[in-house]
Design goal:
The protein is mainly α and 215 residues long. The radius of gyration is 18 Å and the shape is globular. It has one domain. The mean pLDDT is 88. The chain has helices at residues 5-30, 34-46, 50-60, 63-86, 112-137, 143-167, 171-194, 202-210. Helices cover 73% and strands 0% of the residues.
Length: 215
């Protein structure tokens, strides 16, 4: 659908979120390897939240603006991903069951990750909280959409908290927060999907009309 770019990006986001989490699990089970590290850095560190955030950008803004931001985001991630694949690795810095960007010899590549993650935080977490606020103001008929967006916002926020704990040495906290986070995001989506109240966003309203009231 021409107006469903937001949904495509959300699906890509779920895929990469799951793939990034899978590489972490495989590292825990099988141990560190260059292949798992590079896969994790691209799908987890770079793509863990950005596609989900881009879906929100398509929902909030015109397609013209969203296309431009998507192009800039995709170009940045592709370029950084290629450099991650090319960068030599300091294997001596690798930990047996923990993934860290410290093994990259080209350490300057890590400067791009906070920028991409800030973009993801603003539009994914911030966008979900903003939507929850808008539905809260609309009153009781939109209560389910308020709770759905709140679940998504908290679920998107948790991996960031877990990432901070991992840097402090508590890697297990990251895995737990990622699991809880994806469960909360999925729960939020299901709550919104079952809501009888319409969306406040024009693009979702069009989809709801074509799907008989379901987004």
């Amino acid at each position: 659908k021409p107006d469903a770019w937001y949904f495509l990006w959300w699906m890509l986001g779920v895929f990469f979120y799951g793939t990034g989490t899978l590489t972490e699990s495989l590292t825990t089970l099988l141990g560190w390897s260059p292949l798992l590290f590079r896969s994790w850095y691209i799908t987890g560190a770079l793509l863990g939240g950005a596609p989900l955030a881009q879906g929100t950008v398509y929902l909030f803004f015109s397609d013209r603006t969203a296309h431009r931001l998507a192009f800039a985001l995709a170009l940045t991630i592709i370029c950084v991903s290629v450099l991650v694949l090319l960068s030599p690795l300091e294997v001596s810095k690798a930990e047996p069951y923990r993934l860290s960007g410290a093994v990259l010899e080209w350490q300057w590549l890590r400067l791009f990750t906070p920028i991409i993650n800030l973009y993801a935080f603003i539009f994914l977490v911030g966008g979900a909280f903003w939507s929850a606020y808008k539905y809260l103001r609309k009153g009781k008929p939109f209560k389910s959409r308020f709770w759905g967006n709140l679940f998504i916002a908290v679920g998107a926020l948790l991996p960031g908290i877990g990432g901070g704990s991992a840097k402090a040495g508590f890697v297990e906290v990251l895995y737990i927060t990622e699991l809880i986070g994806i469960v909360l995001i999925w729960t939020g989506y299901r709550i919104i999907h079952k809501s009888t109240a319409g969306s406040v966003y024009a693009k979702q309203q069009k989809d709801e009309f074509h799907n008989g009231g379901k987004s």
